[in-house]
Amino acid sequence: MSGSRRWAAASALAAAVASAVGQPLLLTATTREPRAFGYHVGDVVSRTVMIHAPDGLVLDEASVPQPGARGKSLELRDVARRSDARSRGRSIELTLDYQVFLAPPHTRTLEMPSFTLRFQGMPRAQELRVDAWPLTVSPLAPVDVSARRGLGELQPDTPPPLIDTAPARNRLVVYAGVLLSLLGYLGHVYLGLPWWSRAHRPFAQAWRSLRSLTPASSEMQCREAFQRVHQALNRTAGEVVFEQGIDRFVVAQPRFECLRDDLVNFFRQSRHVFFARRVPGDADRIWLIEFCRRCRDAERGAA
After folding, report:
1. What DSSP line would sit under 157-222, residue for residue?
2. What's the sign of the alpha-carbon dihedral 162, 164, 166, 167?
3. pLDDT in tens, 99-134
4. What distance in Å separates the CA atoms of residue 292 and residue 231, rounded to the nearest whole number?
5. Were both Cys, which of 112, 117, 217, 237 would link to 221 (CB 3.0–4.6 Å)?
6. Cβ contacts of residue 78 below 8 Å, gap of 6+?
């Protein structure tokens, strides 16, 4: 009898003896596999390994797959264990949960990795190999899609949301109104009032009326011209100015200091016109207009 035949006969005899005494001699395992197709990224897949170990053998914990490995297409997330003691050994059930972390552009086949469980004890240490199991992972969307509206790689831009601009426009109107009011006030203070003040100064008004005086003007018009100059002097001094009060007027109004001799000459001519009834000549009329102009310049500080 050959050696192989003798080993087969011995095995059959050992099995018959074991069956007679009720003790299993072999370490066995069965697996409950998930379906091998129809998975996408993020799916969780469970695989169950049911082990029957005879008495005397203890599972080596270091050989059990450990979760936590990162960066793989198929990642082991959890290992659950359930163990039951039986009359002829011990039943161990391992449930391994894997999660798909791959999003392939085309259908791709992954594998639940194989592993080997080690058992220590009597009559000897043994190993149990669990083979790999394939999984088919499909893309979330096909690479080539229909060119219909709403599909394809390029999508139209989403229109921006409309914002109500009425409050901003109202604020701008209010700001513009306030700005125009401030500009108007500044223009009135720094432009309008100075211009109005210059235009209504006593000698400025008198000079505008004297510009119409010509050699052909009547005696009455000449008298009115002298009266207007007297009124300008009185308004400037705040009182009636007489010939003997010229010095006091010049002291009170230093701007007219350079016109003191002209003021004396004006009062002398005015006395001749109003009291001596002398009609001013052409030279006198020209001098009066020029005198009034110099008084206007001194009044403005330009003399």
Report:
1. PPPPPP---HHHHHHHHHHHHHHHHHHHHHHIIIIIHHHHHHHTSHHHHHHHHHTT--TT--HHHH
2. negative
3. 999 888 888 999 888 999 999 888 888 888 999 999
4. 12
5. 217
6. 67, 96, 97
**Separation of alpha carbons 185 and 179, rounded Å:** 10
CA 40 to chain centre: 39
Q: Examine the pLDDT at 6 and tell me if it is beyond 60.
A: no
| SS3 of residue 223 by DSSP | helix
Distance CA 79, CA 48 (A): 10
What's the CA gap between 37 and 133, in Å, rounded? 11
The Cα 84–Cα 236 span in angstroms is 125
Give the DSSP per-residue string, 8-48. Answer: HHHHHHHHHHHHHHT---S-EEEEEPPPSS-B-TT-EEEEE
Helix (H) or strand (E) holding 290: helix 282-300
Cα–Cα distance, 270 to 235 (Å, whole number): 18
pTM of the full structure? 0.42
Say whether 293 sits in a helix, a strand or coil. Answer: helix
DSSP 3-state assignment of 136?
strand
* pLDDT tens per residue, range 194-245: 677 666 788 888 888 887 776 666 777 778 888 888 888 888 888 888 888 8
What count of residues does the chain have? 303
